[in-house]
Automatic annotation (TrEMBL):
Residues annotated as domain Flavodoxin: 8-147
Annotated signal sequence range: none
Official protein name in the record: Menaquinone-dependent protoporphyrinogen oxidase
InterPro entries the UniProt entry points to: Flavodoxin_dom, Flavoprotein-like_sf
Length: 184
């Protein structure tokens, strides 16, 4: 059986979203559905400019600031829209903090990208706010907003979503036998 390769790529300002991408990639490759389907996965920063054309599926994510994705993730999706339309794609956003996570809404960019791409699914995942990792102006904003500080990431939810993705890929026929996908 030929293995299927999954690109997990994300834009991260202070490392929290990059850590989520790494856990997603490790879980996709390591879960039973992933091993049975000969899935491999790698986490590559969106800013490194990975080319989705050479991958069989893509999980694309970004940290969210001011309700928007970071430019490296959004730009990667727009630049490679033709390639991404031909393969399974999932989107995730990281950033809500507190209990319950705030803000609860999907970022603006997710709606734009789901209109361009045939996305299999989206997730908004809680993030981390560590003032020690912030620039001076970011710390001032956090203080002014009285934002809750801490790590709100739910690692079991991240791993469960990765297993869900691996299960979908294990059940799908490989891209070589599939018609190109077009957005609905």
């Amino acid at each position: 059986m030929t293995g299927r390769r999954v690109l997990v790529t994300a834009a991260s300002r202070h490392g929290s979203t990059a850590e989520i991408a790494s856990v997603l990639a490790a879980e996709i490759a390591g879960c039973p559905a992933g091993r049975d389907a000969a899935l491999s996965a790698a986490a590559v920063p969106a800013g490194a400019g990975p080319d989705p054309a050479s991958w069989d599926a893509v999980v694309l994510g970004s940290a969210v600031y001011g309700g928007r994705w970071l430019a490296p993730a959004h730009d990667l999706a727009v630049r490679h829209v033709a390639d991404l339309r031909r393969k399974p794609v999932w989107l995730f956003s990281s950033g809500p903090i507190g209990a319950p996570p705030f803000p609860p809404d999907e970022p603006y960019d997710v709606g734009t990208l789901t209109a361009l791409l045939p996305v299999h699914g989206t997730r908004v995942l809680p993030g981390r706010l560590d003032p020690a990792r912030l620039r001076f102006e970011e710390r001032a904003m956090v203080t002014a907003m009285r934002a809750p500080v801490g790590d709100f990431r739910d690692w079991e939810a991240v791993r469960a979503w990765a297993r869900e993705i691996a299960g979908v890929l294990a059940a799908e026929e490989p891209a070589a036998r599939r018609e190109p996908m077009t957005p609905a």
